Amino acid sequence: MVWTGLTSLPLWLRVVAAVVWVLLVAGLIVLRIRTKRGLWTILLIVAVLIAAALVVLPRIVPQPPSLSEQGEIDTVARGNLVAVVEATGNLSPVAQSNVAFSTAGRLVEIEVSTGERVQAGQVLAVLDKKDLELQLAQAQAGLKVAEANLEKVLAGSRPEDVSVAQSNLAQAVANRQELEVSLSAATEQARLSWIQAANALRDAQATYTRIYWDNRELEQRLARYDQELPDENKDAEAKAWRAVENAEAAMEQARLAYEQALQRQNTSLQAARSQVASAQANLERVLNGATAQDIAVAQASVEQSRAAVAVAQAQLDKATLTAPFAGVVATVLVEEGSQVNSATPILVLLDPSAYYVDVEVDEVDIPRVQVGQAVSITLDALPDVDLAAQVQEIALSPSPSQGVVTYRVRVRVADPGEAPLRPGMTANVRIITQRAENVLIVRRRAVRIENGQAYVERVLPGDILERVPVQLGLEDPTYVEIVSGLQEGDSVFVRGVVSNPLQQIMQQPSMGGGFRPGTVQP
Description:
46% of the residues lie in helices and 27% in strands. By secondary structure, it is of the alpha+beta class. It folds into five domains: 2-60, no CATH class; 70-77 and 438-506, conserved putative lor/sdh protein from methanococcus maripaludis s2 fold, CATH 2.40.420.20; 99-123 and 319-348, CATH 2.40.50.100; 157-289, Orthogonal Bundle (Helix Hairpins); 349-436, Beta Barrel (Elongation Factor Tu (Ef-tu), domain 3), CATH 2.40.30.170. The strands form five sheets. The protein has a six-stranded antiparallel β-barrel with strand order 2-11-14-13-12-15. Strands 3-10-8-5 form a four-stranded antiparallel sheet, with no helix packed on it. A four-stranded antiparallel sheet has the order 7-6-4-9. The longest helix has 65 residues, at 159-223. The protein is elongated, with a radius of gyration of 59 Å.
């Protein structure tokens, strides 16, 4: 019984009891040497004290806690693990555009409203087309004229064409002759008027000179008698000077009129001669038939007219705004009647069938991320929705911010399905960087690290813990892969949080090959 009681005590208590026993024995030996009286009394007292210690101490000193009190026992099993890189971003539609006209004008009609689904090519808005339609009609008319002229050139000369060409030449010659006569007469008349104006100027200058010197001579005579020149003489001199100025202006006008007459004569006669030459060349062309150059010119005129029609049609088409892709009208930005141009967005169009999320991944995790990796996305606004996605692109340039280096990673949602997604929703992205299937796994809490070596505590019969070094593989937030060191079905101890100070004091290694419950862990 005594041995059983002692062995059930903790190690530190057994050491204390042994020390007390040694001290008692030493004391008895000393007493026996000094006196032999009372020996049996002392032995009886010692026996009573030991019995009391064996009975009382186990009651006042708590026993070490059991395994179930310190944590849990797990079984090594097989399972699947995935390693993920987590980040947060916002949903963005793959196709989103501020749709605007490519020309300016007055907005007369908006065909859609906010929230409406549209198809690619569907009419969204229309500008005022009146002027553009008129320009197209004029271009089409010019094309018809050019095509008719080409047909005429290709058809060759007809008698009526020769007659018309001869008549045009005769009319051009008559016009030239008439202009030569009329313009020559007009020019001669202008020259004579200039001569007359020059003679009138000379007469006015002579009259003024005579009056001027007469007045100077009279002034000298009157000065002898302290008299001034009479007012009538002064007026006569001023009048004569005005006559000179008027004569100079008249002569200048006559000169300009003469020069203009000469210019008109030269210009008009040159134009008349050109008309005669053109009529003569046209008559020769009609008589000789169309040349290769005439045909080329007519064909070029047709092509130019067709281009003008295409330009006018394109301008007219620009007055109708169509959807560049199928989607939903997110917002209408203008009202009917507004003046708009190419810089005025009319509405925002987005495609709700395809979304992406841009996230910033820390430089520590970015080496594990690769294009094509599977991604799982959850949304704060739609907690029941789990979207499948894929890494689409990884930015090569970093995005440093406040000493933290990240890289932009874009993930593309594979199929939104029927989920009511909206742009801007907060998206929680989990990029699956690695998978392990049907591998041995234990809870991460069961693994300890000491001096760089991972180990677990395997539970042996009798609740004895054995420290087993293990090699770790893939891990997730809850489980870790055991590459070597354990077998399927092994029991491992998952230690809980120790909060009792007395428990911590009592956690000491036991004697033997394993570990007892309560062993201190790093």
